[in-house]
Amino acid sequence: MKKICVYSGSNPGNRPEYKELAIRLGQVFLQHEIELIYGGSKLGLMGAMAYHILDNGGKVTGVMPRGLFPTELVHERLTRFIEVRDMHERKKTMADLADGFIALPGGIGTYEELFETLSWAQLGIHNKPIGALNVAGFFDPLVSLLQNTVYEGFMRESNMQLLLVATNPQDLVDQMNNYIPPVLGTKWRELPVTPT
User: Fold this and answer.
1) Any idea which fold 3-177 has?
2) Which terminal residue of the chain has fewer beta carbons within 10 Å of its beta carbon, N or C?
3) Model confidence, pTM
4) Which residues form a coiled coil (predicted)?
5) What is the DSSP string of the chain?
């Protein structure tokens, strides 16, 4: 993988571990010459990771909708800045550029991007690896939510394999490099199975 899209908080969060692990993920990107694709902000976990990569000679591409955010949010030292029309184009552009996706702790925007990426994988729109860097158990409730979704019959067990989870950045990137898309079967349980 040469380019990974990272979804993460535009705020730093309440634990120092969040920023520390974002920077450690940046170190892994540098070691493997992986370009960061992200939303283009200089703030929060997003900004911390971008600054670390840029300060150490790595490449960072930011994608931001025109006029949606204050100009002071835009990272001023990006390798490449892509301005797009709206959030839909932003997400599509980042997805098209990336070889894989990683979610760090974040808020509603991070969840929305992660779930859209998972949904696209479930529908077969892409087969790129998707990871969650589980800092201080941040994503434990999300994994439990997905397991409950399976238990309640709204998602197949095989779909759990779409999300790779690790607590160590290098381990997560290794999982992504070795990712083989799972065989999901049909999403819709009420449709008859067609013999092959």
Assistant:
1) Rossmann fold (3.40.50)
2) C
3) 0.92
4) none
5) --EEEEE--SS--S-HHHHHHHHHHHHHHHHTTPEEEE--BSSHHHHHHHHHHHHTT--EEEEEETTTS-GGGB-TT-SEEEEESSHHHHHHHHHHH-SEEEE-S--HHHHHHHHHHHHHHHTTS----EEEE-GGGTTHHHHHHHHHHHHTTSS-GGGGGGEEEESSHHHHHHHHHT--------S-TTSPPPP-
